Amino acid sequence: MAIHKTEAIVLKRRDYRETSYLLSLFTADFGKIYAQAKGARRKAGKFGSNFLPITNNKIVFYENHSGGLHIISQADIIDHFCNIDKQIERFTCAAYFLELVNAAMPLAEKNAEVFSLVMKFLQFLDKEDRINNIAQIFEVKFLNFSGFKPRVDCCVSCGGHIIAQSKFSFVLGGLLCAQCYAADRGACAVMQGTIATLNYIEKTDLEKIVNFRIGGTIRMELKQLLRNFIDFHLGQQFKSIQFSKKMKVAYV
Ligand SMILES: [Zn+2]
Prior knowledge:
Blueprint: E1 3-16, E2 20-27, E3 31-37, E4 56-62, E5 70-79, H1 88-104, H2 112-127, H3 134-146, E6 166-169, E7 174-177, E8 188-189, H4 192-203, H5 206-209, H6 216-234, H7 239-247
This protein binds zinc ion.
Zinc ion is lined by residues 155, 157-158, 160, 176-177, 179-180.
C-alpha cells in the first residue's frame, strides 16, 4: 500500500460509520480524492485537524488501489481562513467555490492551476476588504483551468471571427456568429461588452484581475451567462447558490 503526503483543501465532510468522517478533498498532488478519517469523531486530538470544510491541511494517506476510500493516517491544519467564517457573504462565496470544485473536478487528476486558484481565492476572501465580482472572476478562471472553458474568441460552429452580432449557445458551449444562428435555435443574444469582459478576465493574470470592477448591465448579464453555462454543463443545483438567493447574500 503506497503512502503519500500532500496538501488538501476539505471540500466536503460527512459523518461516516460510528466514529469516522468521509471526506472529499482537493489535494495539491493528486487532485480530488475521497478518503476516510477513521476514529476522527471519537478521539479528540487523534488528528491535528477536525477536517472542517474551507480549511487547508497537510495530510498523510494510504492509497487504496482498488478504487475504494483512501485512509488518512495524519492530518494537521495549515490554514483555516478564520475571517471567512465571520461573515455570511464570504462564507457562502467560499462554500460555492468548493461546491463547484467538488462537482466539476474528476477524481485523481492533479490540477495545480485549480489548486492554486482555490487557495488564492480563499486567501483573498479571508484577507481582502474590497470585494468586487469575485464569484464571476473565479468562475471564468476555474472554467479555463478545469477544461470547461466556453468558446468566446470565435464562432463555436464555423470557427469564423465574430464581427458584430453574436449569440451564446449553451448546448454548443460558446458563441455563434450571425451566419450560424441556425446551429442552435435556443442560443441567446449577448452584449459585445459582456463577451469582451469575459475575454479580458480569461486573459488577464489573476493578481491583476482579482479586484476587477464590472459595470452594472454587463455584470448582470455575465453573472447570468456563467450561472446558466455552469448549471447546464454540470447539471446540478448548487446548495450554496440556493442559500445565497434565499438569504439575499451578495458576492455569489
Ligand atoms: Zn459561425
